[in-house]
Write a structure and sequence with these properties.
- By secondary structure, this protein is α/β, with parallel strands linked by helices.
- The protein has a single domain, classed as Rossmann fold.
- The chain is built from five helices and five strands; from the N terminus they run E-H-E-H-E-H-E-H-E-H.
- The longest helix is centred in the C-terminal third of the chain and has 18 residues, at about 130-145.
- The chain is globular and about 35 Å long.
Length: about 160
């Protein structure tokens, strides 16, 4: 469905365990007038359950639409973002969903490993609130204004 600016609206799924970062991201998207639906999961296991329609999301196709893009933190409990990224990009039904790693880690190992697992980009979260808002605004501008993303024409993965 096109937004007011003529671009396709989509679901943005953010895997983030920090409630403050979730609030800041939502506020930044709202202040940037992002018309997309922003959804959250708390860790990599919930992310995979959401994407594969398993666990809490087994019967929720309408309540859990497939995302057009994933914002992924690396450092989360249970299944971390590194493991989730590897699973997403290894799955033929999920690998075309762009994954933006948005994390506090500046470790070269994390950056290299993320790109080895086909992350679409890697962004280190600024600790300054205003700079964080600017980063979220830049993500919105680039991914939803400049980039052509695949349409949500893929079926939900089989259960």
């Amino acid at each position: 469905m096109p937004s007011a600016n003529g671009h396709q609206t989509m679901t943005i799924l953010m895997a983030e365990d920090d409630p403050d970062d979730r609030i800041l991201t939502r506020e930044a998207m709202e202040s940037a007038h992002v018309a997309n639906d922003l959804r959250f999961v708390n860790d990599g296991q919930y992310l995979m359950d959401y994407l594969r329609r398993e666990g809490d999301y087994a019967d929720s196709d309408a309540e859990a639409p497939m995302p057009g893009i994933i914002l992924l933190d690396l450092n989360m409990p249970r299944m971390d973002g590194r493991e989730a990224l590897a699973e997403i990009k290894a799955d033929p039904e999920l690998r075309k969903i762009p994954v933006v790693v948005l994390t506090t880690s500046k470790a070269e190992e994390d950056i290299g490993r993320s790109y080895q697992h086909h992350a679409n980009c890697y962004i280190t979260k600024p600790v300054d609130i205003e700079k964080f808002r600017q980063v979220v605004s830049a993500i919105e501008s680039f991914w939803f204004t400049v980039v052509e993303l695949p349409r949500d024409d893929h079926p939900a993965p089989a259960r």
